[in-house]
Specification:
By secondary structure, the protein is mainly α. The chain has seven helices and no strands. It starts with 17 loop residues before the first helix and ends with a helix.
């Protein structure tokens, strides 16, 4: 597995710094190939810890992950000296948590949510692509994944409704 070991931007971050640790998705963003996918995978244990919470607690923690993400991603980006480096994957963590709001129980639904989120995050249909290109800073890093999560959430809930 290839890591960002020699990347001069990533070398400015430290996993000992809690902000960097979160921005790097608990270290998952250090994988140089498909860091967004690994960041999304890193969100699964967090989701598993949250999935049995009441909806209001789940929504509150998800909202906290998004709001904190504006700062986390902005700080890591500034510390690296580059906007939205691929190693910053907290936005994927928050995006998957959004996707899985009120998801039906079961590994199949978790997998479907994961795939839907990755599709929207990678393909970036309008207006996700527009936001990704036009909005900068921590908000800009987060907003395209928040919207991808919302699109994936709508699709997941639609599938659950029609198949359930």
């Amino acid at each position: 597995m290839k890591l960002w070991c020699n990347d001069p931007y990533v070398s400015k971050l430290s996993l000992k710094n809690p902000i960097h640790f979160l921005a790097l998705g608990f270290g998952s963003g250090l994988v140089a190939k498909a860091p967004g996918t690994f960041g999304t995978l890193a969100a699964i244990p967090l989701y598993l810890l949250m999935m049995n919470l009441s909806l209001s607690w789940y929504l509150g923690l998800t909202l906290l992950s998004v709001i904190a993400g504006f700062y986390i991603c902005d700080k890591a980006s500034k510390d690296m000296g580059v906007h939205d480096h691929g190693a910053i994957v907290w936005d994927e963590v928050a995006g998957l948590l959004i996707t899985l709001i009120a998801a039906p129980a079961g590994w199949v639904w978790l997998l479907v949510g994961f795939v839907l989120f990755r599709i929207f995050d990678i393909l970036k249909p309008w207006p996700i692509k527009w936001l990704d290109a036009k909005v900068h800073g921590g908000f800009g890093i987060m907003i395209d994944d928040v919207l991808a999560g919302i699109f994936a959430l709508i699709c997941l809930q639609g599938l659950a409704y029609w198949l359930g």
